[in-house]
Amino acid sequence: MAGRQLKLGAIPTGAGGPDSPNRWLDPDIPPGASADVAWYVEFAQMAEAALFDWIFLFDSQYITDRSPPHYLNRLEPFTLLSALAMVTKHIGLAGTFSTSYNEPFNLARRLASLDVISGGRAGWNVVTTGDAGTASNFSRDEHFDYETRYRRAHEFIAVAKGLWGSYEADAFVHDRASGVFFDKSKLHALNHKGEFFSVRGPLNLQRCPQGEPVLFQAGDSEPGRNLGAAVADAIFTQGGTLEESQAFYRDIKQRVARAGRDPDSVLIMPSFVGYIGDTDDEALRIKQYYRGIDQSLDQRLTQMGRTFGGHDFRGYDLDAPFPAEALADATTAYYTRAQTFARIAAERGLSLRETLEVAAGNDGPGPFIGTARKVADSITDWFEARAFDGLNVYVEHPSQFRRLIDEVLPILRARGVVRTAYDATTLRGNLGLPSR
User: Fold this and answer.
1) Under 8 Å between Cβ of 19 and 62
2) Which residues, 6 or more positions from 15, have their beta carbon under 8 angstroms from its beta carbon?
3) pLDDT class for 364, splitting at 50, 70, 90?
4) How confident is the prediction for the chain on average, in pLDDT?
5) What are the pLDDT digits (tens) for 244-259?
6) 326-340 as b/e, with b when 16 or more CB fall inside 10 Å?
7) Which residues pair with 193 in a beta bridge?
8) CA-CA distance, 415 to 410, in Å (whole number)?
9) I want to staple 10 with a disulfide (CB 3.0 to 4.6 A). Which of 47, 191, 308, 345 is the partner?
10) Which of 190, 212, 185, 186 is nearest to 201 (CA)?
11) What is the C-alpha to C-alpha distance for residues 358 and 360, in angstroms, rounded to an integer?
12) Residue 105 to residues 97, 100, 190, 378: CA-CA distances in angstroms?
């Protein structure tokens, strides 16, 4: 990709997500931030001023009384993104929407509406839903099994794409002299009948400004990688070491090529959490402090249990080997992530307590912890080494996000690694992706 530049997404997690359930105690964060539209507006405008490519709202539709604050009380993504579209001009607006607990027509219409409202800035993070308990909120006795979820997702996306093609771009002529509102020859019914869906169409909305919303996909599993390679514009991933990230990058690009697509047209975007201090030692102390207060041991056990399909880890001896039998409960949950933790624990001979530290990111200083220059150097090195095409920045404590904007991004901007101005009016255009 000529003139390759780092792409940046920002993920606001308000009062505290799964790995930071006590973050709402930070006086810099309103305790009700996750349901406060004014807080999101301030954040969105800050990210846009820093030339971020998109805001990403992850979502779920199932909670228990042990869920983190950001899950217990947060705004529905479509409603919130539509509100943010009115107070921003350039930044992309992406949300998580499940193919397991939606219907293609309704979701395609909502995404197209967001794209029209925002002038071409809508994005869809395609998920199949890992929380098995979600089924109980949608009149289902059981969650779809892993294979079924991904078969359904493939068909769901195909239907949505078909519906977005209902109207050609110039279908609405609005010719008052002749009394012709639209050209009927440029309206197309879908007439889809498949394994999961029967959708006649067409969609009752004009073509999206960017042709189709940008499709993001998060899934490190084999089915998830294949889905992303076949349909996604950008792939979200958890990341890892430099070597692991490079291997994932190569694997996805190869799958994209085998799917008959241009590998440069699919962006790889791992999650990013950095810690910035005046010295490397101070940055490490900041990390250790926040990781210590943001999540108690009991909360870490709860989060590990969510990954493993609700397995209760609280009755185990923390200093005994990690219980490999827990993996059996993860088959309808976040199975690939659970497999990763179980594999690391087995390979390193870790106890449950030590595995919790790995899961919480407390197992070392890491490359993105240090002075602003050190963090900028690491980002530059990894980007140039093809470990990623961009970063999904988790916005945890606001003071650290401001330091990233004020201290790290100017260094990257001076090097030409990130943009100095928005390139286009649509999200697809700003990401350098082909139009649809």
Assistant:
1) no
2) 23, 24, 29, 30, 31, 32, 33, 34, 68, 69, 70, 73
3) very low
4) 93
5) 999 999 999 999 999 9
6) bbebbebbbbbbbeb
7) 198
8) 9
9) 47
10) 190
11) 5
12) 13, 13, 11, 43
Which whole number is the average pLDDT over 278-284?
96
Amino acid at 312: D
Q: Which tokens go with 411?
A: 């260094």
Inform me whether the pLDDT recorded for 220 exceeds 90: no
Close Cβ partners of 401 (under 8 Å, ≥ 6 residues apart): 10, 393, 395
43 with 81: CB under 8 angstroms?
Answer: no
Tokens for 93? Answer: 């607006």
Residues 18-26, mean pLDDT to the nearest whole number? 91
- In the numeric block, the tokens 């997500």 are attached to 17
Structural domains of the chain in order of their starting residue, each with its CATH number: 7-281+365-430 (3.20.20.30), 296-359 (no CATH)
C-alpha–C-alpha distance, residues 419 and 430, integer Å:
10
Contacts of 244 (CB under 8 A, 6+ apart): none
Question: How far, in Å, CA of 42 to CA of 142, rounded?
Answer: 40
What lies within 8 Å, CB to CB, of 428 at 6+ separation is 120, 210, 211, 214, 233, 434, 435, 436
Is residue 313 a contact partner of residue 323, using CB atoms and an 8 Å limit?
yes
Among residues 156, 54, 49, 38, the alpha carbon closest in space to that of 95 is found at 54
Rounded to 10 deg, the angle between the 297-307 and 335-348 helix axes is 120
Note whether 102 and 125 are within 8 A (CB).
no
What are the backbone angles phi and psi of residue 217, rounded to the nearest 5°?
Answer: -145, 130
407 burial (CB, 10 Å; 0-12 / 13-18 / 19+) is middle
Q: Looking at the chain, how many residues does it have?
A: 436
Please tell me the pTM assigned to this model.
Answer: 0.89
Residue 83 and residue 10: Cα distance in Å, rounded? Answer: 17
CA angle 44, 56, 407 (to 5 degrees): 55
What pLDDT does residue 46 have?
Answer: 98
Neighbour-count burial of 314, counting CB atoms closer than 10 A to its CB (0-12 exposed, 13-18 middle, 19+ buried):
exposed
**Strand stretches in 71-223, DSSP E:** 92-98, 122-127, 192-193, 198-199, 214-218
- Report the sign of the C-alpha dihedral through residues 281, 283, 286, 290, in that order: negative
Could you tell me the two tokens for 198?
């029967």
Look-up of token digits 């110039």: 170
**pLDDT for residue 435:** 81
- Nearest-angstrom CA–CA distance, 339 and 399: 34
